[in-house]
Amino acid sequence: MTRVCLAVAALALVATACGETSSDAAKDDDSGGRDKGGYHGKGIGLAYDIGGQGDQSFNDAAHSGYERARKDFKIGGVDMEPGDGESSADKVQRIEQLARQGYDPVIGVGFIYAPAVQEVAKKFPKTTFGVVDDNTVQADNVADLVFHEEQGSYLAGVAAAKATKARHVGFIGGVDIPIIHKFEAGFVQGVKSVDPKIRIEKRYLTEKPEEGGFASPDKGQDAASGQLEAGADVLYHAAGLSGQGVIQEAGSQKKWAIGVDSDQYRQKALAKYRKYILGSAFKDVGGAVYDLTKSVVRGKPMSGTQRYDLRSGRVGFSDSNPAYRNNKDIVAAVEKAKEDIISGRVKVSTKP
User: Are 253 and 232 in contact (CB under 8 A)?
Assistant: First the structure.
């Protein structure tokens, strides 16, 4: 998709705040209001997290829901990239301009948009806002779209423990923050549920998001190289775009990698290495974006905390790789773990 920054006059965004917008925004500006339910917005306003579209993971998952909703409901939309080194004020301006131009819902992909949504939602009480991965914004016109990431990560841990031949696996987190701690906690618990003696390497790429932990494949590759050199033969990442480097390094050394957020086995950019992508601990961010848009178009906007888990089917472990499906021992262990979590027999920790 060709992307532009300030060519869409209807958005009237200043250069420091806009990031990039989709080139079809101009075509879609007047395409809202076509749903039979009486929807009168211009469509979906989607603001991406660090790494942007093309990360083959978190942002691309959101993009899939954005595209599906536009197609199904015949509405317009604009999706926007974050700018390099942007400030909190830039995020506020981006969210506010989307709302001011009539996009509804306006969705911030990632917890970094919580302060912006908190501020802007007060100014536009008739617009529905969504924040992915944050439940701190409490307002009648805001939906907090959050996931039990630890549950999918537990399944990834079980799969890794069953797949490892060295009894040595690795976890690579993009940024050392609470939401990524949930991925680590679930993964470690899942591994230990199979074999408490399995060794687990752990590495966070950066302390803060702005340091590139979610957007630097080279950092992911370096971390993966170190863990493989230490003896791990299955690596699980929760690192956004940086995870591409993890998968590439594992694949190049013919070791297993486990993806995150999207079904990374199906990602075209990773096709060269997909043979070594055992599976992915997915969370259906696209489904959450779709759900919120559907509720707005149908005149009954969602609000409050919307939490997705294994039971809802919006969190899980993908089985696209035939090599995974053909390993009945791994599949059976993962399915048993899934049943145990859904039934309540296993409670997954959210803290390492």
Answer: no
101: Cβ–Cβ under 8 A, 6 or more apart, which residues? 10, 11, 12, 29, 42, 45
Give the three-state DSSP class for 205.
strand
User: Are β-strands 76-81 and 43-47 bridged in parallel, bridged antiparallel, or unpaired?
Assistant: parallel
8 Å CB contact between 277 and 262: no
User: Along the 352 residues of the chain, how does pLDDT read in single tens digits?
Assistant: 333 333 333 333 333 333 333 333 333 333 333 344 578 889 999 999 888 888 878 899 999 999 999 999 999 999 999 887 788 899 999 999 999 999 999 999 999 999 999 999 999 999 999 999 999 999 999 999 999 999 999 999 999 999 999 999 999 999 999 999 999 999 999 999 999 999 999 999 999 988 999 999 999 999 999 999 999 999 999 999 999 999 999 999 999 999 999 899 998 889 999 999 999 999 999 999 999 999 999 999 999 999 999 999 999 999 999 999 999 999 999 999 999 999 999 999 999 9
**pTM score of the predicted model:** 0.86
Q: Is 177 in contact with 114 (CB distance < 8 Å)?
A: no
**What Å distances lie between residue 247 and 91, 270, 279, CA to CA?**
30, 8, 11
Which residue has 């959210």 as its token pair? 350
Q: Which residues pair with 175 in a beta bridge?
A: 206
